[in-house]
Design a protein that fits this description.
Length: 281
């Protein structure tokens, strides 16, 4: 496994692989890798002959009162885990490599509507930062495929939107949410939970599951089901931000239940902000 700090160095093996006509998959990450990231890496290895993982804690997707400074950074453990997975290359750029003109002069990617809803409403500027960094990574690596997790469902739709709209020649693959045995979606931020909060954390998955089950009943009311889910989360000691049923393709409010839907939720528990979602095909 080779590691690269600069895009010029990384482009050498990328050019060789392209010449040999082997496909390249990219897994963008912010490091602090857990089993969920490794599942993305395994998925990437099924999609392409070469796998590149990027590790970059992107400052532009954190709000001023968010955890950029304290976000867990564990590069040695990350590299050891990726080596065991047989990853071909790890890209570890610094901020100047990703934002060569500096943050304030950086070209930004903004998508009206999609970025301002749900998590975007609660984290202003977050998806602009995500879209901006992901487009940069896609430009730098030019992968055939890029793999993202379903847990960040809105993020994945933002990325699909920009790839389609800006004619980026990368196929976006969504891998299923990786879960602990009690259903909690794996996330680096789960480590902010105390032991007692960790025991209660699967209530978010359970609340979304109850909405999904309710939607299967005749005459189901998404609004009433979401209200009940919010109430159950409050009872479990969460500070819920939203539980919503949306059109799975567009995130539009669902007027009808005869199409693929997604139940999405976000809730704070202690220091952690948890998100999760369930697809209803
Ligand atoms: O999902 C993440 O870890 C990040 O949002 C991403 C896609 C690596 C961009 O920084």
């Amino acid at each position: 496994m080779q590691t690269f700090g600069s895009v010029d160095e990384l482009r050498r093996p990328l050019a060789e692989w392209r010449q040999d006509q082997v496909r390249v998959a990219l897994v963008p990450t912010m490091g602090n890798l857990h089993e969920g990231h490794l599942e993305l890496v395994r998925r990437a290895a099924r999609e392409a002959e070469r796998v590149v993982v990027s590790i970059f804690v992107n400052p532009t997707q954190f709000g001023p009162r968010e955890d950029f400074a304290s976000y867990p950074r564990t590069p040695e453990a990350d590299l050891a885990a990726l080596a065991l997975e047989g990853v071909d290359a790890v890209f570890l750029p610094d901020e100047a490599e990703v934002y060569p003109l500096g943050r304030s002069a950086a070209t930004r990617v903004s998508i009206p509507g999609l970025m301002d809803d749900l998590c975007g409403r609660l984290r202003p500027g977050h998806f602009e930062g995500v879209a901006t960094v992901v487009l940069r990574l896609l430009n730098m690596v030019a992968p055939d495929v890029a793999v993202f997790g379903q847990k960040d469902y809105q993020q994945q739709l933002v990325i699909r939107h920009l790839v389609h709209d800006l004619r980026v020649a990368t196929r976006i693959v969504m891998a299923p949410t990786s879960r602990e045995s009690d259903g909690l979606a794996r996330s680096s931020r789960n480590q902010y939970l105390t032991a007692e909060e960790r025991a209660r954390a699967p209530a978010l998955y359970a609340a979304l599951g109850a909405v999904a089950a309710g939607l299967a009943q005749p005459g189901a009311s998404p609004g009433a089901l979401c209200d009940a889910a919010m109430a159950s989360l409050r009872e479990a000691g969460f500070d819920p931000e939203y539980v919503e049923v949306r059109d799975a393709a567009t995130l539009a409010a669902c007027a009808a239940l005869d199409r693929p839907l997604v139940v999405l939720g976000a809730a704070r528990l202690g220091r952690a902000r948890l998100i999760d979602n369930l697809l209803i095909p």
